[in-house]
Each structure stands twice: as structure tokens, then as C-alpha cells.
Design goal:
mainly alpha; 0% strand; elongated
């Protein structure tokens, strides 16, 4: 029983590494709240177009789905 506790607490239950793509975080936040996904995308590019964040916020405030569609359409995946 103590061996299983040590494996659980200190790792070793999963023998393979888990790899999460970097774009998954951007997609996750875009689905949860689209302006954050747009902000992460613009931050990675050096903020070339700040208007996208404002438009996404306005569309999300009006109703969630237009903001979501705008956000999914405007984030770029590497």
C-alpha cells in the first residue's frame, strides 16, 4: 500500500510523457472567453492589430456565439 501511495504522490503512475500542444491553450481560452483567446494570439504576434481584441469583446458582450465565431476565425494556429 505504501508503494502505491509513493507512486501516486511522486509520479510514476503514467509511464509515458503527456504532450499538450501550445495551440490547445489558445483554443481552450477562446472557447471559454473569446477575447482572452484573441489577446493570447495577438500577444504572441506582438500586438499588430489591437482592434481585434475590442471587436471580440463587443461581439461576446452582445451574445456569446458571434464572439466565439469571430474568435475562432481570427486566431492563428502554428
Amino acid at each position: 500500500m505504501s508503494d502505491m501511495f509513493k507512486l501516486f504522490m511522486h509520479g510514476g503512475m503514467i509511464t509515458d510523457d503527456i504532450c499538450i500542444p501550445t495551440d490547445f491553450i489558445k483554443l481552450f481560452f477562446t472557447i471559454i472567453f473569446p477575447p482572452i483567446g484573441i489577446w493570447i494570439d495577438q500577444h504572441g504576434k506582438g500586438y499588430p492589430n489591437m482592434n481585434k481584441i475590442g471587436i471580440s469583446f463587443i461581439l461576446t458582450a452582445m451574445f456569446y456565439f458571434p464572439g466565439l465565431m469571430y474568435g475562432l476565425n481570427n486566431i492563428s494556429f502554428s
